[in-house]
Amino acid sequence: MFERSREEYERACQYLPGGVNSPARSFSSVREEPVFIERAEGSKVYDIDGNEYIDFVSSWGPMLFGHCQEDVIEAVSEQLDKGTSFGAPTIVETEMAEEIADLIPTVDRVRMVNSGTEATMSAVRLARGYTGRDKIIKFTGNYHGHGDSFLIKAGSGPATLGLPDSPGVPEDLASLTISVPYNDEEAIQKVFEKEGDDIAAVILEPVAANMGVVPPQPGFLEFLRRITSEEGAVLIFDEVMTGFRVAAGGAQEYYEVEPDLTCLGKIIGAGFPVGAFGGKAEIMDEVAPKGPVYQAGTLSGNPLAMTAGLEMMKLIQQEGVYEELKNKSDYLREGMEELKREIDLPLSINQVGSLLSLFFTDERVVDYETATSSDTELYAEYFQNMLRGGIYIAPSQFEAMFVSAAHSREELDETLEVMEASLKELE
Ligand SMILES: Cc1ncc(COP(=O)(O)O)c(C=O)c1O
Ligand SMILES: NCC(=O)CCC(=O)O
User: Fold this and answer.
1) Given 130, 135, 138, 238, which residue is catalytic?
2) 46 is catalytic
3) Is 143 a catalytic residue?
4) What start and end residues bound the annotated signal peptide (predicted)?
């Protein structure tokens, strides 16, 4: 079934560390070798052996309307003829920033970058420059990309591969990042009591989705808003995953809590390399060339990425998009709940909007400790069964399932059927 992928993986391993360009693509934690993708369309991806899968990885989030969405492809094709990069201002950059500012009221100004990692790295530098303080608080199991300051008890790939603290991050820098349990107000309170004057920022995923999906407990985001305001620290929402996914205005709209800075990525680029950070003018005007905090990029605001992103901004503002996404995701979750009742396995399900996770544990998953109570061996076998059944999910327990508008009811039913068979084999 995977002959050509196996061959190509072997060849890739000679030239790419671990055969991949990002560790999250490795299938090592699920004891498999990755399938190589040839093309994708709508809700499906197709591998080089001719296998077809219903895709719930969704390029790790960007494909809110499925692959090869026709408006995006058409707009990008037109832009291709005009040029791929100029290193000079273009109107589409301003239009993109205008759209973001319209949809996210806490954002007056935006700086476009090339990835989520760049967005979070730059936002933290800005918070440090703005406050004149050095320390940051992050949450165990949250992932903010691979910037040095964030590879401290990090979720996603680092958690999957057992590398939550990476070698190569200088100890002096790591000591400036304080990691506390997600949803734990007391832990934050204690840190602020001890070193409040040194804390530049609190950064978090307002819905954690890199230790599997873990929603914020009621009041948690409000608490963070209150304490950071009182203590003069910058509150940074990393909405790289949740931005334009859980609502048009992101998690901050969904939960009605306003951060000082917002990091974006994934959906705003419709599959092109892109990220952004933005916030109130008072803080953003510290960014060079207006202010002294340096941040730059040869390809930042790339015309192809901006053109694709702008189409995405139009698509998400169509009537009923988030309702449809929620209905589809609720349908899938309800089906999963039914399986949970029928099947004799420890299962726990979390969902926020179109982000879902199935954990192999009896515990209610509220933080990294409970997320890691999941039986990852069972997940590995479940993953293998799903893959062979034509359902492409993340090769890690500590990631989300992404539902898109392109998933049809029939495909969700098929997914649930394969899920049922995959789980029953594990009983
Ligand atoms: C919440 C969050 N922040 C930041 C990142 C980093 O983004 P990128 O992989 O584009 O660098 C990711 C995903 O990778 C993410 O899920
Ligand atoms: N949730 C994790 C990611 O989105 C990252 C994918 C990658 O690093 O390849």
Assistant:
1) 238
2) no
3) yes
4) none
238 labelled catalytic: yes
pLDDT more than 70, % of the chain: 100
User: Looking at the CA of 276, which ligand is closest?
Assistant: 1
**How would residue 376 be classed by pLDDT, with cut points 50, 70 and 90?**
very high
> How many angstroms does the Cα of residue 43 sit away from the middle of ligand 1?
22
Give me the CATH code for the 70-316 domain, please.
3.40.640.10
Angle formed by the axes of helices 303-316 and 70-82, to 10°?
150
- Residue percentage of the chain with pLDDT more than 90: 99
> Does 323 score more than 90 pLDDT?
yes
Q: Closest Cα partner for 329 from 349, 355, 365, 360?
A: 355
Q: Could you say which ligand is closest to the alpha carbon of residue 145?
A: 1
**Residues with beta carbon inside 6 Å of ligand 1?**
115-117, 120, 143-145, 205, 210, 238, 240-241, 265, 275
The alpha carbon of 331 and the centre of ligand 1 are apart by a number of angstroms equal to: 27
Residues 63-92, mean pLDDT to the nearest whole number: 98
Q: Which of 138, 266, 322, 379 is catalytic?
A: 266
Closest atom, ligand 2, to C-alpha of 266 = 4
**Mean of pLDDT values over 295-301:** 98
pLDDT at position 7 is: 98
Nearest ligand to the CA of 272 is 1
Taking the centre of ligand 1 as the mean of its atom positions, its distance from the CA of residue 240, in whole angstroms, is 6
Residue 164 in this model has a pLDDT that exceeds 90: no
Q: Calculate mean pLDDT across residues 327-350.
A: 98
pLDDT of residue 163: 86
Yes or no: say if 94 and 260 are a contact pair by the CB < 8 Å rule: no
Q: For 279-291, what is each residue's pLDDT tens digit?
A: 999 999 999 999 9
SS (H, E, C) 193-247: HHHHHHEEEEEECCCECCCCCECCCCCHHHHHHHHHHHHCCEEEEECCCCECCCE
The topology (CATH level 3) of 3-68+319-424 is Aspartate Aminotransferase, domain 1 (3.90.1150)
Question: Can you tell me which atom of ligand 2 is nearest the CA of 61?
Answer: 4
Looking at the predicted complex, does its ipTM rise above 0.85?
Answer: yes
Bond prior to 17 in cis (omega within 30° of 0): no
- What average pLDDT does range 150-171 have in this prediction? 92
CA 165 to centroid of ligand 1, rounded, Å = 17
DSSP 306-336: HHHHHHHHHHHTSTTHHHHHHHHHHHHHHHH
